[in-house]
């Protein structure tokens, strides 16, 4: 009887030990999950702080994320690399020149063949567009973006696209000197050159 009673008295502590182990394991799991979340949040905060600091040093606002241009996977774009351009710039105080690598993005292979057929005219138009700029014009991102737009227009012009220039008319009045009145710009034609990409851009 004494042995059975002792065994009966010893059973409850085993159950309580199991409960204690389960509780400790649950607490450890919660702490690990919470720690992981805290580490992720700290990394995100640090990255945001670094971007803000870089923007302040450069005098620019943090760039907002923009969606990448979507391309139809069934009709991928065609890229036509051109031979590098070396051209004297329009600086008057010193002799400066630019070495620029350009790749044209077009819709299909047929346009690639047309570009090769008109390559002398295309290169001439691009060289003229490049030489109109000074080094200051091309140093910043905005200057390069404007140059890309002009190259897109000049290359499209070489391929036969006609651009209607904005017409300005003078409207006479009795009280004041003649005033200039601008006509509404016509809709821009669809350009065969979808985009202009710079593969190399060195100014010396």
Overall pLDDT score:
75
CATH topology descriptor of the largest domain: Tetrahydropterin Synthase, Chain A
Secondary structure class reads: alpha+beta
End-to-end Cα distance, whole Å, is: 103 Å
- Which CATH class of the largest domain? Alpha Beta
- Strand tally is 6
What is the CA-atom radius of gyration, in angstroms?
Answer: 34 Å
User: What amount of the residues lies in strands?
Assistant: 15-25%
CATH superfamily of the largest domain: Band 7 domain
Q: Determine the number of helices (DSSP H or I, runs of at least 4 residues).
A: 5
Strand and helix order:
HEEEHHHHEEE
Q: Per CATH, which architecture of the largest domain?
A: 2-Layer Sandwich
By oligomeric state, this entry counts as single chain
- Overall form: elongated
Largest sheet: 4 strands, antiparallel
Count of separate structural domains: 2
Helix percent reads: 40-55%
Ranges with pLDDT <50 over ≥5 residues? 1-8, 54-69
Task: Draw up the topology in text.
Blueprint: H1 2-58, E1 78-81, E2 85-88, E3 97-106, H2 109-117, H3 119-131, H4 135-139, H5 141-158, E4 168-171, E5 179-182, E6 193-203
Antiparallel strand pairs: 1-3, 2-3, 3-6, 4-5
Helix pairs in contact: 3-5
